[in-house]
Predict the 3D structure of the following.
Amino acid sequence: MKQQILRRAILWLAIGIVIAIGLNEGSFIFLKSEAGRAPRSIELLIPAGTAEQMAQGHASPEIPTDMVFVIGDTLVVRNQDSADHNLGPLFVPAGTTASLKLDRAENFIFECSFQPSNYFGLDVREPVTWETRLYGILFAGVPLGLLLSLYSFIIWPLKPREKAAA
Protein backbone atom coordinates (compact mmCIF):
# COMPACT_ATOMS: atom_id res chain seq x y z
CA MET A 1 0.00 0.00 0.00
CA LYS A 2 2.80 2.45 0.88
CA GLN A 3 4.51 1.71 -2.43
CA GLN A 4 1.29 2.45 -4.33
CA ILE A 5 0.92 5.80 -2.54
CA LEU A 6 4.56 6.72 -3.14
CA ARG A 7 4.46 5.72 -6.84
CA ARG A 8 1.27 7.69 -7.43
CA ALA A 9 2.63 10.76 -5.61
CA ILE A 10 5.88 10.68 -7.63
CA LEU A 11 3.96 10.20 -10.90
CA TRP A 12 1.67 13.19 -10.25
CA LEU A 13 4.55 15.29 -8.97
CA ALA A 14 6.38 14.64 -12.26
CA ILE A 15 3.22 15.46 -14.22
CA GLY A 16 2.85 18.74 -12.26
CA ILE A 17 6.45 19.69 -13.02
CA VAL A 18 6.01 18.89 -16.72
CA ILE A 19 2.87 21.07 -16.83
CA ALA A 20 4.76 23.88 -15.05
CA ILE A 21 7.63 23.60 -17.55
CA GLY A 22 5.19 23.92 -20.42
CA LEU A 23 3.37 26.90 -18.92
CA ASN A 24 6.47 28.69 -17.63
CA GLU A 25 8.65 28.27 -20.70
CA GLY A 26 5.71 28.77 -23.06
CA SER A 27 4.84 32.09 -21.48
CA PHE A 28 8.52 33.12 -21.42
CA ILE A 29 8.84 32.42 -25.16
CA PHE A 30 5.45 33.93 -25.99
CA LEU A 31 5.99 37.16 -24.06
CA LYS A 32 9.59 37.65 -25.25
CA SER A 33 10.45 39.59 -22.12
CA GLU A 34 13.09 42.30 -22.54
CA ALA A 35 14.53 41.10 -19.23
CA GLY A 36 15.36 37.69 -20.70
CA ARG A 37 18.56 38.81 -22.39
CA ALA A 38 22.17 39.51 -21.50
CA PRO A 39 23.23 43.09 -20.70
CA ARG A 40 24.32 45.16 -23.71
CA SER A 41 24.88 48.68 -24.93
CA ILE A 42 21.71 50.40 -26.18
CA GLU A 43 21.84 53.57 -28.23
CA LEU A 44 19.35 56.42 -28.00
CA LEU A 45 19.65 58.69 -31.01
CA ILE A 46 18.60 62.34 -30.84
CA PRO A 47 18.13 63.18 -34.52
CA ALA A 48 18.91 66.50 -36.16
CA GLY A 49 16.03 68.96 -35.87
CA THR A 50 14.79 67.73 -32.47
CA ALA A 51 15.22 71.14 -30.82
CA GLU A 52 13.18 72.77 -33.60
CA GLN A 53 10.38 70.21 -33.20
CA MET A 54 10.45 70.76 -29.43
CA ALA A 55 10.12 74.53 -29.95
CA GLN A 56 6.95 73.84 -31.95
CA GLY A 57 5.64 71.53 -29.20
CA HIS A 58 6.08 68.29 -31.15
CA ALA A 59 7.93 65.15 -30.15
CA SER A 60 10.46 63.57 -32.46
CA PRO A 61 8.86 60.34 -33.73
CA GLU A 62 12.22 58.55 -33.67
CA ILE A 63 12.65 59.00 -29.91
CA PRO A 64 10.71 56.63 -27.63
CA THR A 65 8.96 58.04 -24.56
CA ASP A 66 10.43 55.38 -22.28
CA MET A 67 12.75 52.39 -22.53
CA VAL A 68 13.26 49.01 -20.79
CA PHE A 69 16.70 47.80 -19.71
CA VAL A 70 18.29 45.03 -17.64
CA ILE A 71 20.88 45.54 -14.93
CA GLY A 72 24.28 45.94 -16.57
CA ASP A 73 23.02 47.68 -19.72
CA THR A 74 24.70 50.86 -20.87
CA LEU A 75 22.56 53.63 -22.34
CA VAL A 76 24.48 55.52 -25.02
CA VAL A 77 22.90 58.86 -25.98
CA ARG A 78 24.06 60.13 -29.38
CA ASN A 79 23.13 63.75 -30.08
CA GLN A 80 22.97 64.51 -33.81
CA ASP A 81 21.01 67.71 -33.18
CA SER A 82 22.46 71.22 -33.45
CA ALA A 83 21.37 72.00 -29.86
CA ASP A 84 22.76 70.65 -26.58
CA HIS A 85 20.51 68.21 -24.69
CA ASN A 86 20.36 66.65 -21.27
CA LEU A 87 18.96 63.40 -19.91
CA GLY A 88 19.03 63.26 -16.13
CA PRO A 89 22.69 63.28 -15.09
CA LEU A 90 23.91 63.30 -18.71
CA PHE A 91 24.75 66.49 -20.57
CA VAL A 92 25.13 65.75 -24.27
CA PRO A 93 26.48 68.67 -26.33
CA ALA A 94 25.55 68.85 -30.02
CA GLY A 95 27.35 66.25 -32.12
CA THR A 96 28.66 64.25 -29.13
CA THR A 97 27.84 61.07 -27.23
CA ALA A 98 27.36 60.34 -23.53
CA SER A 99 26.72 57.07 -21.72
CA LEU A 100 25.08 55.93 -18.52
CA LYS A 101 25.72 52.53 -16.87
CA LEU A 102 22.52 51.09 -15.40
CA ASP A 103 23.58 49.05 -12.38
CA ARG A 104 20.45 48.66 -10.24
CA ALA A 105 16.84 47.69 -10.80
CA GLU A 106 14.64 50.76 -10.58
CA ASN A 107 12.12 52.85 -12.49
CA PHE A 108 13.81 56.13 -13.31
CA ILE A 109 12.05 59.27 -14.45
CA PHE A 110 14.74 61.62 -15.73
CA GLU A 111 14.34 65.23 -16.72
CA CYS A 112 15.21 65.57 -20.39
CA SER A 113 15.33 68.29 -23.00
CA PHE A 114 14.24 66.25 -26.03
CA GLN A 115 10.69 65.29 -24.94
CA PRO A 116 7.71 67.69 -24.86
CA SER A 117 6.87 66.44 -21.36
CA ASN A 118 10.48 67.18 -20.26
CA TYR A 119 10.61 63.69 -18.72
CA PHE A 120 11.98 60.38 -19.93
CA GLY A 121 11.30 57.00 -18.31
CA LEU A 122 13.91 54.27 -17.89
CA ASP A 123 12.75 50.93 -16.51
CA VAL A 124 15.74 48.87 -15.32
CA ARG A 125 14.84 45.27 -14.46
CA GLU A 126 16.53 42.27 -12.94
CA PRO A 127 17.66 39.94 -15.73
CA VAL A 128 15.74 36.68 -16.05
CA THR A 129 18.36 33.96 -15.62
CA TRP A 130 18.08 30.19 -15.87
CA GLU A 131 17.94 30.09 -12.05
CA THR A 132 14.93 32.42 -12.04
CA ARG A 133 13.20 30.26 -14.61
CA LEU A 134 14.00 27.09 -12.63
CA TYR A 135 12.55 28.63 -9.45
CA GLY A 136 9.38 29.50 -11.37
CA ILE A 137 9.04 25.91 -12.57
CA LEU A 138 9.62 24.44 -9.11
CA PHE A 139 7.39 26.93 -7.28
CA ALA A 140 4.54 26.14 -9.67
CA GLY A 141 5.23 22.47 -10.44
CA VAL A 142 5.73 20.99 -6.97
CA PRO A 143 2.50 22.36 -5.40
CA LEU A 144 0.57 21.52 -8.58
CA GLY A 145 1.94 17.96 -8.56
CA LEU A 146 1.08 17.51 -4.87
CA LEU A 147 -2.47 18.79 -5.41
CA LEU A 148 -2.94 16.53 -8.43
CA SER A 149 -1.65 13.64 -6.36
CA LEU A 150 -4.15 14.35 -3.57
CA TYR A 151 -7.01 14.70 -6.05
CA SER A 152 -6.01 11.42 -7.68
CA PHE A 153 -6.70 9.61 -4.40
CA ILE A 154 -10.21 11.08 -4.35
CA ILE A 155 -10.94 10.23 -7.98
CA TRP A 156 -9.21 6.86 -8.04
CA PRO A 157 -9.12 5.57 -4.45
CA LEU A 158 -6.65 2.84 -3.59
CA LYS A 159 -8.19 -0.59 -3.27
CA PRO A 160 -7.06 -2.63 -0.30
CA ARG A 161 -5.10 -5.73 -1.20
CA GLU A 162 -6.93 -8.98 -0.81
CA LYS A 163 -5.39 -11.35 1.68
CA ALA A 164 -4.44 -14.78 0.43
CA ALA A 165 -6.85 -17.52 1.46
CA ALA A 166 -5.42 -19.98 3.99
Notes: Strands lie at 41-46, 66-70, 74-79, 85-87, 90-92, 97-101, 106-111, 119-125. The chain has two domains: 2-32+129-155, 41-125.
